[in-house]
Amino acid sequence: MSFTYEFERPSLTVDCVVFGVDESTLKILLIERGIEPFAGQWALPGGFVRMHEDLESAALRELSEETGVTKLYLEQLYTFGAAERDPRGRVVTIAYYALVRLADHRVRAATDARDAAWYAIDDLPPLAFDHRKIVDVARERLRGKVRYKPIGFELLPHKFTLTELQKLYEIVLERALDKRNFRKKILGMELLVALDEVEAGVSHRAARLYKFDTRRYKRLVRQGFNFEI
Amino acid sequence: MSFTYEFERPSLTVDCVVFGVDESTLKILLIERGIEPFAGQWALPGGFVRMHEDLESAALRELSEETGVTKLYLEQLYTFGAAERDPRGRVVTIAYYALVRLADHRVRAATDARDAAWYAIDDLPPLAFDHRKIVDVARERLRGKVRYKPIGFELLPHKFTLTELQKLYEIVLERALDKRNFRKKILGMELLVALDEVEAGVSHRAARLYKFDTRRYKRLVRQGFNFEI
Predict the structure, then answer these.
(1) Which chain B residue has its CA at the smallest distance from A1's CA?
(2) Residue spans per domain, chain A
(3) Which residues of chain A form beta strands (DSSP E)?
(4) Residues of B in contact with A3 (CB under 8 A)
(5) Would you give the DSSP letter of residue B107?
(6) Which residues contact A144 (CB under 8 A, 6 or more apart)?
(7) What's the CATH number for B11-145?
(8) The whole model's pTM is what?
(9) Closest chain A residue to the Cα of B53, Cα to Cα
(10) Which residues of A fall within a CB distance of 8 Å from B92?
(11) A-to-B residue pairs, Cβ atoms closer than 8 angstroms
(12) CATH for B162-222?
């Protein structure tokens, strides 16, 4: 079947907002652009979609090429296509986002990226294009997502203390939580299994370890349970 | 600034899933394609994004051209870009969705559409491309949206009975709701103002009329209140 397209067509890119958590901070993976436009400025990792490549594959490829980061679960965020968003001409970008443990990913810049680094979300440099706006939308989505899915299932070690889980929630939600309320709510979901073990390396008042009840976790997510804290 | 693009680039379209409610049914606005591929088959209204046109403008333009439907609030749904989704070659589509009152919109086919019509969601004809999948994603999103935003604010007349509101919820959620539970929950949100009026044209046991408390509605939506029923 032949296909004629009468119009000049927009270019298509993908961009990735990768959130990383360490012990205390929410960070974002940025690259320093090695090419024009905005050479020398920081931006989200991303690039042009190839002709025979699925969108998510393009996002994973660009992320891997520019930052060395691989093996993560990307979700589509939003497509940004304002007519004037790119000085090169019409470029529509499909943004993806992910939340990972910083410790699990080694960063190494290459191809179009002169450098790659994690930046604390509250201390971002000026970003190229409309990438600041994309970051803000991703941040909002990340916060909203806790309603559908408890945080931590993919991010915490297999066994963890309630303090570790609360800390993770506080980092991702970017606000302090009341300890008693948090414990009441999270235990009320019956999502956690209390283990007959306490944290290692603490001799006095070591905290109990918990793990996620995988089956119940999956069932609740399927049911659209509201996990709000 | 000059811009060289080394690759052949995908084409970009927009598609619209417009849900319409009447007194009893959830429907979707479809067009019968007048051109190849899939000429004579039903599909979502949509088409190619022009070079200097924002994405939402493109969606509104295509909708208006193909179906005559205008003045509605579209939200971006998802971008579908599987490499093999279109027999014409690589076409990435940005899908939008909306929920309207059927009675507010007159449908009239034109341009690439040979016909345009509302189809009950449970009685859709086979659809062109991957449009059935797009409809399913939109349906899921519509159901999920009730968490963020009560249904009806834009869809009901200014004054309505609780029975009318419940009916609207049942149509959109596609399930029956228990009358007592529904009333308890919806009144518990303190979203509605009871008026000193009853429905017209009913002499015996006429039901009380309500309206939305606009200010409280907006505040709760801003706060991310959970409106689940």
Answers:
(1) B88
(2) 11-145, 162-222
(3) 11-21, 26-33, 42-43, 46-48, 75-80, 91-101, 113-120, 192-198, 208-212
(4) 88-89
(5) -
(6) B224
(7) 3.90.79.10
(8) 0.90
(9) A83
(10) 12, 49, 55, 94
(11) 89
(12) 1.10.10.10
